[in-house]
Structure formats: C-alpha cells, structure tokens
Amino acid sequence: MNLSQHVFLYCERGASVALLAEPFNAASNAAFVLAALAALWLLLRRPRLERSADHFLFIALVFVIGLGSLAFHLFATQGSELADIIPIDVFMLVYLGFALNRLLGVPPGWTVLTLIGFAAIVVLTMQVKCWGGGVGFPDTSVTDAKECLNGSLVYLPALAAMAIVGGLLCERGQRAAPLILWAALVFAVSVTFRSLDIVLCDAYAIEGHKVGTHFVWHLLNGLALFLLLRASFEVGGGSEIRTTPVRAGFVLPPPDGN
Fold it and tell me: Between helices 30-44 and 53-75, what is the axis angle to 10°?
C-alpha cells in the first residue's frame, strides 16, 4: 500500500488533488467535534458516580473520528483514509461491546464472541462487490467490479446491530432504547445520502462546484453519534441496569436522567 497515493471516492473532490477540493465535505466534519463537545458537557453535568471511563473513551473516539475524516477530505490519500476508517471501526466494536455487556447484561464471554462474529461479518461485507448485472464475490474474469452503494454496504451491519440492540432494550424497558433507535433511524438516512453521493453528483453545483451529498452523511452521523453517546450515559460507573418503562413514543429522557 502506497500511503501517499491519492484516493478519489467522492463527488466533490472529483479528480482534484488540491488540499481544499472538498470544502463542504471537510467543513461538515465539525458535526463530529460538536457532538463530542456537547456530550462531554452533558456528561460533566452528571454526578461523578454516573460517569465512567467508557463515557470519556466514546467521546474521545467521536472527536478522533472527526479529525480523521477531516484529514481524509483534505489530503485524500490512502494514509489519511486509514485515519478516517480506523477510528470508526474501533468505535463500532467498542460501543457494541459496551451495549451488549453494560446495557443488555450479556456476559463478557458471549460479548467477546458476538464482537468476533460482528467483525467477521463486516470483513465479509467489505469483500462484496457490484458489477454489471451481478453482486457478490467476483472472480478474476470480472473487470468492472466496484464497491456497492458507493462503499456504504460495509455500514449495514452496524445499522442492523443498532436496530437489534435498540429493539431488545425497548422490549426490556431500558431508558437508552429510544436514543439508540433514533440513532439507528438517523444513521439509515445518513447511509442513504452517502450512497447517493456519486449518483446525484451532477444534480447539485454551487458556482460550478459539484457538491454531492457526502457532507450530509457527516452532519447526520454527528447527530447519530451524539444520540449513541447520550444513550451510553444511561449506565453510569458501576451502576445497575435501569428498567424504567419506555412508552410507545420515542421520547428522549431529560439530560440529567431523572
């Protein structure tokens, strides 16, 4: 892998190697930073006994996700792409483990096995390609294979995990349930905008500059991650799983958790 080799994945960049070729995609990463700062502010307002190292880790990861994505949309190299992808993957695995063990009460051993299975599914999904009239694992005879859904297929396991975890929490009457379910809904819309970036590339332009829809992915993901961070606060450091009933409507609990 040549870490300095340029990568052209999104509508706004096109084939340009300029540092500021993606102003909307770059600037929209502020959503991640704002999500992390807002979550940190809410966390620090809570009693010390309701905070844990997990909470601060998640907030730090969201902040790093924003910085990594910003680097990729500025430099667009394989090296900066790793800075974009790795924090996202780490967050997915760590948060899923937290949700299984701390929110759902899954024993550590089963949590680890589930995480291994989830990681295997993600890796397998990365190998799926699309080509003219086909979807699957292409052999050497296929010359036009490319990423499905503009590379968004790899995020579908995370979406499914959020929906399943949120549904199980809702069934148990957990206070984190509506937050995670709303996050899943926002993420589903976000993935849609990411997938349509190239398809709608010619539809929107500002003074001749093609914008695409990838920046909406950033904005909505910032909201989805904030909701997940907020949901994690429903289990404080060493506290037991809460079982306050959740009504049919997705009503967000107050910031202080009362």
Answer: 170
